[in-house]
Structure formats: structure tokens, C-alpha cells
Amino acid sequence: MDPEASPAPPVSLFYSYAHEDEALRDELRGHLKILERRGLLSSWHDREITPGEDWHSRIDAQLQMADLVLLLVSKDFIESDYIFGRELTVAMQRHEAGLSTVVPIVVRAIDIEPEDRDAFPFLRLQGLPTDLRPVTSWPNRDEAWTNVAKGLRATVKAIHEKKAAAAPRSARRGMPQSSPPVEESAPRPDAAQDPVLSEVVDGFMARVHDANAQRGGAPMDEATLRAQAMGLIDEPDQKRVLWVDDHPENNRAEVASLAKLQIDVATVTSTGDALDVIDRDPDGFDLVISDWGRRFDGANAGLALLSELRRTGRTLPVVFYHGEFAADVRAARAREAVAAGALGEAVYPAELIALVLKGLATS
């Protein structure tokens, strides 16, 4: 690394949206909050304009210096004269000049066809979610936003790398040829000091509570669960989990809780599918969660999967999440799991989250 290089500033994000979609904007901001916390992103929207400010000038100034512009597309968005007359025009001009990146996100269903590209120039751009399926049409909204956030992470990473490459050159202009002093980074605020982050953690905890109630678990330690959430949020890299269970519907609340923290979860229903996706998925995985037995894979399918992973040299951490609550059965399975090289077994969500945190921290 260049000793004179300074950290690249965060990617500046501008939200272009209709006020009818303000709640959806807030949901998206919550899902992108983790990128903000990691110093990769800083966001702005027009509700940050203070009383007495010239709102037109402030919006224009923010738009002109934005690295990334998100278009929250909906019926109200395309019917807004101001958005189309000003925000979209400037955003597209800057995009075409290579000064910013514009990403359309379809938040509510709209009646637009590909042949409408001349009237709606953003249709020429790659949008989100996948296949432009409107966010509000997904059965699980968190999964929709996770899909959106995954795409935006790649965009933010590309912009940030570009800014980082330019930072050393600008830092050297007019500066003496010596290394600048190294400053300690400011401590990160906890969730209580950040309303958006607090909502993210609260959403995670609500999903865990739902899962715990479905499994008849005892009351959970709130402070411990909140600390675990912050531990997962502060993992330095994006994490991905492969969940193997022939009844994925039984784990929806648990999957939703991880999605709240922007942990990608891919689900498969068999050992064969698990091995295949591990081999073929270009992004890779950081952890495998498996049930113990599967109808078509056998009573010890999870152990068989773990054995095959280790036989083929794969060192992915493995956690078992099953439904046998009897103490003697659990004790036996815990011994077998650890002996086979797994991190452990869990039957309640709080136990699972503890193991997930442990596994992701070591991946």
C-alpha cells in the first residue's frame, strides 16, 4: 500500500423518490445502514433539509456531488414532474458522463414496457431487485431488500475502489514526501445512538423472538441477543450462509432475522444440492447450517454432509439446527457433532445465533 495513501471517502448516495414511498426509502436505508457503519457509504435524502433552507439549491447541490443515485421507481415516481424535470435529468446526464452511477430500484409495481425507453431513460440501466420484481410484491420484504442490497454492495464496492485508487494521487499534490501521521478511527456508536441502526437491530430481534415462540423457547436474554446482533453487524466483510434443510419453511423467521443484518442466506433441500452449490456458486459461503436428518438423505444426513465436506478438503464451519428437544438426544448429538468437526448443535434461535456468530467470526 502507498504510505501516503489516505482512506477513500465513503460513496455519497442520493435518494431520488416520491414522498409517497418514504416508508420504503426508510426500509432500504435500514438495509444499507451496515455499509454506512463500515465507512463505505454516506446517504442523503430531502428530509434532511432544515427549515429555512433553499430546498431546490440543496437538492441540486447534493445531486451534483453524488457518487451514486438510487431511483425508487413507482407509479408516483414516474408521475412526479419535479423528479422527471430535474432530478432524473441531472442524474442521467452525470451517469452518462461517468460522474456518478444511477441504479433504478422498482419498489412498487408500474406499467412500463421496454419500448418506453425513450420516455423513461432509466430503463436502459440494470435495475434491482432481480428481474425487476417490485419490492412490495415479495412475500418477505426483508428478502427483497437483501436482494437489492446485495446488488448495491457490488456497485458501492466498485465506486469505492475507484475512489480509493484516486485518493493517493490527490493526497500527494503539494504534500511533502513523508508519511502522514496515523490517526485512530473514531469509535463506532452503539445502536442506541443511531435511530436507523437501532431499527435494524430491533427488526432482527423481533424475527428471533418470532422463531423462538414457534419453537416454544424460554425467554431470551435481551442484552446478549442485542450484543450478538452488533457482533454480526460489525463483521468486517459481507457474509454468506448456506442452509440445508428439506423443510426450509420451518426456518423462515430465522432466515429473516439474518437477512435483517444483511447476511445472505441460500437455501437447498438436499446434500447433493448443497455440495453442488458450494462447488458452483461464484461468491462462496462462510458457514453451513444443516438439519440433522432429511427424508431422502437419511437419518444422519447432516453428519454425512459434514463428512463429505471434510473428505474433500472443505473447511467451511458447520452448525446443526434440529428439532429434537430431549436433553439426552441433544447431548448425544452435541458429542457427535463436535467429534465430526462441527461447531455444535442448536434447537433454539438464540443458541443458533451464538453459533452463527462464532462460525462467521472464524471464517
Short description:
With 363 residues, the protein is of the alpha/beta class. It has helices at 22-37, 55-64, 75-78, 81-96, 141-172, 195-214, 222-233, 252-260, 271-280, 301-311, 327-340, 349-362; strands spanning 11-16, 41-44, 68-73, 101-106, 240-244, 264-268, 287-290, 318-321, 344-346.
Notes on the protein architecture:
The chain has 363 residues and is an alpha/beta fold. The protein has 2 domains: 11-156, Toll/interleukin-1 receptor homology (TIR) domain (Rossmann fold, 3-Layer(aba) Sandwich); 192-362, Rossmann fold (3-Layer(aba) Sandwich). The protein contains 12 helices and 9 strands. The strands form 2 sheets. The chain has a 5-stranded parallel β-sheet with strand order 6-5-7-8-9, with helices on both faces. Strands 2-1-3-4 form a 4-stranded parallel β-sheet, sandwiched between helices. Helix 11 links the parallel strand 8 and strand 9. The two termini are 25 Å apart.
Essential attributes:
363 residues, alpha/beta, Rossmann fold, four-stranded parallel beta sheet, 9 strands
Structural class: alpha/beta
The whole-number mean of residue pLDDT values reads 88
CATH superfamily of the largest domain: Response regulator
State the low-pLDDT regions, or none: 1-5, 170-186
Please count the beta strands (DSSP E, at least 2 residues each): 9
Query: What would CATH call the architecture of the largest domain?
Result: 3-Layer(aba) Sandwich
Topology pattern, helix = H, strand = E: EHEHEHHEHHHEHEHEHEHEH
Summed up, the helix count is 12
Strand content: 5-15%
CATH topology name of the largest domain: Rossmann fold
CATH class of the largest domain: Alpha Beta
How many domains make up the 3D coordinates?
A: 2
How much helical structure, as a percent, in the residues?
40-55%
Task: Identify the overall geometry.
Answer: elongated
Largest sheet: 5 strands, parallel
Distance between the termini: 25 Å
